[in-house]
Write a structure and sequence with these properties.
It is a single chain. The protein is 22% helix and 18% strand. It is of the alpha/beta class. The protein has one domain: Purple Acid Phosphatase, chain A, domain 2 (4-Layer Sandwich), CATH 3.60.21. Helix 1 links the parallel strand 4 and strand 5. The longest helix has 15 residues. 38% of the residues are buried.
Length: 264
């Protein structure tokens, strides 16, 4: 995976039957009403692809930072852009205020010249009103897609709030991975770095599904960078793209593997 591009950390098929023929090199389930992306008009490079990851915008948003990131992405021209959640300030049940905040954010990402894929964070779906607003505007909070034989898994770490993955979500990804397709890589995107308490949060159940494949994990939430190693795979905790910045760098941590059925 030499062509992964993260903002602002730089590192060097066929469609699903729901909508056949829309775009080559991709498998995705497209809902008839709303979906958790802006569009699917990819910068489709025939030889290789790279994508960008935008990190926490909120949690003490610094004006202009995210907007500048959008401008830079349009210069970089990745195939598409993902995020790790915390897109609005949220933490309100006022529907008009939620509409205002989402309208503001969508206006930013609609300026991107490539697709943007939404990932929920605690600032986005921290109460029932916010969950319903997400579903109304963006549909499902967790999903997957395949692009050029790379499997992308988008997790909801507020299921239910806070810092949790439900049994229903685990079952969804179990069904995805049970198909047995041996993709050349699997990438996970989520907001909270649940591996820091994998057993308590249910993330160990997700890890147990991935033991037969190479994968990489990306999260945000803590507003500082950290690199971890679990079961021979890299896990990244990313800093911010506009959220309050914590300059302390947590650095590289090699986490000693433990049995997935360990409950200590």
């Amino acid at each position: 995976m030499r062509h992964l591009l993260f903002l602002f950390l730089l590192f060097p098929a066929l469609l699903d039957a729901h909508d056949p023929g829309l775009i080559a090199n991709m498998e995705v389930e497209i809902a008839p009403d709303v979906n958790p992306w802006t569009h699917l008009n990819f910068n489709d490079d025939p030889t290789h692809f790279h994508f960008a990851v935008i990190t926490d915008r909120t949690g003490g948003a610094r004006p202009g930072v995210f907007e500048s990131a959008v401008d830079k992405l349009n210069l970089l021209q990745p195939e598409f852009v993902l995020c790790v959640g915390d897109l609005i300030e949220g933490y309100t049940e006022d529907e008009a205020e939620l509409e205002r905040q989402w309208d503001e954010f969508d206006a930013f990402v609609n300026q991107l010249q490539m697709p943007f894929f939404y990932v929920p964070g605690n600032h986005d779906i921290s109460n029932p009103a916010m969950v319903e607003k997400w579903k109304e505007r963006r549909g499902r909070p967790y999903y997957h897609f395949v692009y050029r034989d790379v499997l992308f898994l988008v997790l909801d770490t507020e299921d239910p709030p806070s810092a949790s993955i439900s049994a229903e979500q685990v079952a969804y990804f179990r069904a995805v991975l049970a198909k047995g397709d041996q993709h050349r890589w699997t990438l996970l995107f989520m907001h909270q770095p649940l591996w820091l308490a994998a057993e308590k949060t249910g993330f160990s159940d997700i890890e147990a599904l991935l033991t037969d494949r190479p994968y990489t994990v990306f999260a945000g939430h803590h507003h500082r960078y950290g690199k971890y190693l679990r079961y021979g795979n890299r896990y990244y905790k990313l800093a911010t793209t506009g959220g309050a910045s914590n300059p302390r760098r947590s650095g590289h941590r090699a986490v000693r593997p433990y049995r997935l059925d360990h409950h200590g």
